Amino acid sequence: MGKFLRGLLSIRAMNALLLIFAFACAVATIVESIKGTDAAFAFIYRSNWFGLIMLLLTINLIYNMIRYKIYGLKKLPGFLFHFSFIVIFVGATITHYFGKEGSMHIREHTKTNLISTREVYIQLISEDEKGKTISKDVNRYIATNEKNSFDMKLDLGKKDAVFKYKELVLNGDLGWMKADDGKPIVEILFSDDKNKRKITLNSGDILPIGDLDITFNNEPKQHNFIKIYLKNDGKFYMQTNQDIKYFQMSDNTDGKLEKNTEIDFNEHRLYTIDGVNFAPTTMLAKAKLGVKPVPMTQKGNNAIIGDLTYNGETKEVFAFFGDFARTYTVGGKEFKFAWSPKMIELPFSIYLKDFKLDRYPGSNSPSGYSSEVVVEDGDFKMDYEIYMNHVLDYGGFRFFQSSYDLDEKGTILSVNKDPGKIPTYIGYFLLMLGMFLNFFNKNSRFLELARLIDKSSSRDKKTVKKENNNVNKKALSLILVAFFSFFTANNLKANDLPNIDKEHAKKAATLVVQGFDGRMEPFDTMANEILRKVYKGKSFEGMNAVQTMLSITINPESWQHTKFVKIGDDELKKILGLKSNETHASFEDFFGTDENGKPSYKLMLLSEQTNRKAPNTRTKFDKEVIKVDERFNIYYATLMKSIFKIIPKENDPNHTWFATYGVMKNFSAAEEKRAKMVLQNYTMSVLDAQKSGNWSEADKALDLIKKYQNKIGAKVVPSYNKLKFEVLFNELDIFKRLMSVYLLGGFALLIFVFLRMMSPNLNMSFAFKMVYLVNIIAFLLHTTGLGLRWYISGHAPWSNTYESLVYIAWALSFSGIIFSRTSAISLSLTSIMAGITLFVAHLSHIDPQITTLVPVLNSYWLTIHVSVITASYGFFGLSMLLAMFCLFLFIIKKPGNDNELARNILEATRINEMSLIFGLCLLTAGNFLGGVWANESWGRYWGWDSKETWSLITILIYSAVIHMRLLKGANSQYWFAVASMFSFWSVMMTYFGVNFYLSGLHSYASGDAIPVPKSIWVSMLVMIILATLAYFKRKDAQKL
């Protein structure tokens, strides 16, 4: 037993538990995507074994903190860091068992003190002999017809009421079913050209419709009648004195019913009287209401069915998921049975005075929403406004703005009571403090590695001979030349199209346009977006984007025969009638004539067929059809003057702006006249300037449009400085240009690294300084670019895929500079990786457009949380690259001593470990900061959403890798390289995989699966090959 316990408390067991915990979390995210969130919580997150793993990890941590004596002053930072997890675990446990979570729904000018729980319960409710409400509930997951058997007892004093589960009905609906203890019923569906209505008749019912009685097992009271009755033979019959036609659906025959004659009431017949159709849908001699399964194509709801026994009587009962409680009388007592959230009564009420919703100008996208409420607690009243990231705290409860009703007259507030908040926040503080102090503690592993690297570096410098490397200097001087060449302009080609003066285009660049998402931006931004999307270039035959778009809108006739829409697929070229060497199509190329000689869009049928296909079944040709169809439609809208929204509508509550075409459709006559005068004046002035070459009048006309914008749309027009900076940002195109700089500098330095390996006496000092200088300049420009984008957009530049990739490239560059003082390898690899990341960011399927923020992201916590987490990816990327580099060196290393390669492996491994430690600290800090953001925004630290769960998985995996050096057999440069290389896939899954393959708040996945890119499989194969080939040289590896 003692041996088992020691093994359970060992570092090896801790690593095993970390990986088991990570694996369980990964499985849970997959279960959630396949079976739903409830299944993931029932089988994993809320299971006893899952909680046991966390408890064992905490106990193991306590034991090893004592065993390794990390509670001393010298190890204080490490103690604070590790102890923080114990405090966080205690806080989380208190929250889990004693906290309350739910939501409160309030309509305007009403109040409530009820919150509904987040969890759904199976509930049985009744009253005891004294009239006191007694209830029993079970929070149990039921999703399939597998083994779900359970009982529930309700203690009513002398006797118990017992519910016994029988079955689950997936996608059911309330309907009549055969039952021995049931009653006769008839369901009839009435319909006309406009309406449908189903009516149920019980035995003895009379349904009067005007002067007509429809009866079931009863005599009519009016002269005109339709009698329906059930005879002893178990069949239903009908008799009438009215003119009724019928249509027999089985053989498509029709006829007329004989009056006052008994006929079969046939459910396969459609009857018609005075233009109203009716037909029986259900006819049962013995029936009762129950749960009927309906096809998955119809809207239904899951329901549970069971037997309720009390006082010697047993009756079948049922409840629908999330529905109201149903009432049953069993054994002479009334019971309520429900499968829904519980209602919790608060000791105070919330009154909703007003709900407000703000939108981005000219769009339906919410920019923010708030609830003006009054807290009423006896005679005490307090006004308060609740909005995103502005929480109401009262009576130990916290109220967060969560959602709202579609009619915008009601609010939904998230509510929670969290007694574990204080210990959890104390744990977070200790975690941050411990990590921070660890980087300054001379006894820490991080600084120990730094000292070893410095020592190795200084020794290597003494052994290197100083040589003149004129060739190196000449070669590397070219890097600086190339660097500056990437920031110079070109495109001097001329054309015969109506041109726009460059100086006039510069002035037009700052004309304000309302974007598709309501963002107010300069004309230059939208012009570049359209040119980039339609033409796939930054300029057109010597004209920049502004010149090109102005020419198209002013002179649409001249552009209809111009080859402008990018076509890359040969099959599409044939369809459009292009030559194989043509790369673009004109507007006219997209149209032909049909059999009636009328113009027809050549891609209409193709685009309709392709869009109906599931994304995962679309071929490369299908995808190209969709892209070209989109390009053409954007080009068509530009030609039709319906894309550039430059005219604000007067007194519009949503500050909507319109293009020329929209002005004609949406403005009043007087306002249309004023707007048209401004627009027509500009058009005519430009046309005159194109003929005369004098652009002074066109400049004045442009100024009139700007004055019109500033007068009518003053509330949403950005400042002139912001517009100018955005134009400058577009012109510089910093991130795309830096891609080549990083790649060139990185590969140049990598070549010299390999040259030095072959010739250890090679002096790399000048080469290193040159590339280091290039990287410093590139990093500063990169930082400037991020700062400009931040200023322009008004929010931190890491809110979408493009921005986060650009930021990761920045983090990679930053990590390379940090470790560059002692490692040329680190600098070269991070430069290459930064260049590759920017290359990925500028792939065609990633949109670099600056967008607006959804309300929940409009928080300073976003800036901190996302920036810290995303920065960690840069250091993990460096770790992965160094690991691959080490494995490659193992492969080419000759058996025995190869001092230069061994030195490089040692250096790369140490920097790898430092990078990994730094990245893990950032990710851990960012993840817990995200918990603070979540708690301050919507009242919960952790929701086991797929994104945050995979972030935790990454932390667990890298924690196991960090502690490998303490494990006998795993403490090896080879195994550390293999582990840190393959661990990066958890980062890739967190960043990319969750977004497209799993469900959750951070996910873009829906319905159809997106194929896994081939590059993923190729990368995996390369890693496996590297690990396998290096395995045979693992004996040459040193301990960490």
TrEMBL record:
Span of domain ResB-like: 340-408
Lipid bilayer topology: Multi-pass membrane protein
Coiled-coil regions listed: none
Location relative to the cell: Membrane
Domain Cytochrome c assembly protein stretches: 798-1002
Keyword Nucleotidyltransferase: no
Alphabetical list of InterPro entries matching this protein: Cyt_c_assembly, Cyt_c_biogenesis_CcsA/CcmC, ResB-like_domain
Keyword Transmembrane helix among UniProt keywords: yes
A GO CC term attached to the entry: plasma membrane
Segments passing through the bilayer: 49-66, 78-99, 422-441, 475-492, 739-758, 770-792, 804-820, 827-846, 866-892, 913-934, 949-967, 974-994, 1014-1032
Molecular function GO terms recorded: heme binding
Entry-linked Pfam families: Cytochrom_C_asm, ResB
Keywords, in A-Z order: Cytochrome c-type biogenesis, Membrane, Transmembrane, Transmembrane helix
GO biological process, one term: cytochrome complex assembly
Annotated protein name in UniProt: Cytochrome c biogenesis protein CcsA
Organism: Campylobacter ureolyticus
Gene from which the chain derives: ccsA
